[in-house]
Amino acid sequence: MNTSALLRLGAPVLAAAFTLTGCAGGPSAGAPAQTASGQAAPAGTPSGPASSAVTVSDAWVKAAPTGMTGAFGTIANTAPRDVTLVAASTDAAHRAELHETVAGSSGQPAMRAKDGGFTIPAGGSLTLRPGADHIMLMDLAAPLRAGDDVTVTLTFSDHSTLDVTARVKDFSGANESYVGTPSPSAGAGH
Questions:
Q1: Which helix (H) or strand (E) holds 139?
Q2: pLDDT, tens only, 83-100
Q3: Nearest CA-CA partner of 32 in 22, 24, 43
Q4: Degrees, nearest 5: CA angle 89-79-35
Q5: What is the pTM of this model?
Q6: CA dihedral 141, 146, 151, 157 (to 10 degrees)
Q7: Separate counts of helices (H) and strands (E) for the chain
Q8: Nearest Cα to Cα of residue 73 among 115, 130, 113, 31
């Protein structure tokens, strides 16, 4: 699958329908939008009080042979209200956590789980990047090699989910320490 393809997944909200749109970005763009079932999606998803849109672009995962790594990209929110990403999961890792990077006790960057998740402001965006906010994939199920695709399921505070396909890339930066209790097989930072 081309990592610039859009995935769309309609999800119920308590009193309204939320339409979530995800795009796993990559080096090429222009693939047609798709619904969660793989059908072509209509152009121009309507938004208003009963619906909004979340778009994920430039999604990628750092290549790693074992242990842990990070998933990155930009999440844009065209909804008229804030949206909160509260969890992530993937078959590529036994555990996934939302992480932030903070100054550690020695002043060096350290990553830790982000309490409450990531809020994407109405009409705004959040960039997940190495050395900053990211999704940590821990206890990898198998090596992740450059060129592989990884599907990451994002879960929002309204319990809706969105599958995003991210391309695995080689990247040598952002080797922060981990503040917490990583699994015994976890490697160095991402």
A1: strand 134-140
A2: 899 999 999 999 999 999
A3: 43
A4: 55
A5: 0.66
A6: 90
A7: 0, 14
A8: 130
Question: Is residue 39 within 8 Å of 51, Cβ to Cβ?
Answer: no
Residue with tokens 């999440």: 75
In sequence order, which residues have a C-beta less than 8 Å from that of residue 105 and are 6 or more positions away? Answer: none
pLDDT in tens, 21-40: 333 333 333 333 323 333 33
8 A C-beta contact, residue 148 and residue 165: no
Token pair, residue 89, equals 């999961």
Alpha-carbon distances, residue 164 vs 35, 110, 122 (angstroms): 12, 26, 21
DSSP 103: E
Phi-psi region of 67 (alpha: psi -120 to 50; beta: other; left: phi over 0): left
Residues paired with 167 in a beta bridge: 60, 149
Q: Is the pLDDT of residue 109 over 90?
A: no
3-state helix, strand, coil in the chain (%, to 5): 0, 50, 50
Answer whether residue 14 shows pLDDT above 70.
no
